Amino acid sequence: SFYASFAVANREPSRGNFVDADPTKAFPVHEKLQNFEMGYELIKNRFFIKTNLFLMNYKDQLALTGEINDVGDPVMVNVPKSYRFGMEISAGVQILKSLKWSANLALSKNKIKDFTEFVDDWDSGIQRSKYLGTTNLSFSPELIANNLFAIDIYKGLSLSIITKYISKQYIDNTSSEDRKLDAYL
Q: Looking at the whole model, is its pTM more than 0.85?
């Protein structure tokens, strides 16, 4: 089967987004998302494969910028343009009546366009801004892979071995190699 979809979603800022906002600047507004997806699925007797392409185009996504408010809490602000673009693939096979294998892979680019970072200057007591251009969204790895072997041992009881790989990801939106979580398995 083949499918295609277009969806629109909105997300209101949380109470914390308003409480932590800098009162001298614009208050947060709702995020707007346009989601385009298309995919293909093939299922045979003992085999399946599914693919999905997606583009999630955001306007005013709430993101951490490094800014803090007057009591030291992190501030989330609306970044005008950001996106997630990628592909997901899943496949599996029933190897034996009691043994199956499945895996999936997600590849994506997760970016903020025209990002400005804010950094505390402890010597002067102010925050400095630095324009960074297009950067990676925080906590958004570009590759996630899963692998599963499952064996049915007895009625209603199975044993699974699951492997998961997550590529590097950044703890903020600066794409700085000094502020990343290493890939892990």
A: no
75, 86, 147 from 28: Cα distances, Å? 10, 28, 40
Rounded CA-CA distance 78/21 in Å is 11
Token pair belonging to 21: 């906002």
Query: CB under 8 Å to 6, separation ≥6 — which residues?
Result: 34, 35, 36, 37
Burial class (CB in 10 A: 0-12, 13-18, 19+), 91: middle
Backbone Cα Rg of the chain: 21
3-state secondary structure (DSSP) of residue 13: coil
Sign of the torsion angle spanned by Cα atoms 168, 170, 174, 176: negative
Both structure tokens of 106: 């997600």
Task: Please state, in angstroms and rounded to a whole number, the distance separating the CA atoms of residues 41 and 62.
Answer: 33
| pLDDT < 70 regions, the chain | 65-66
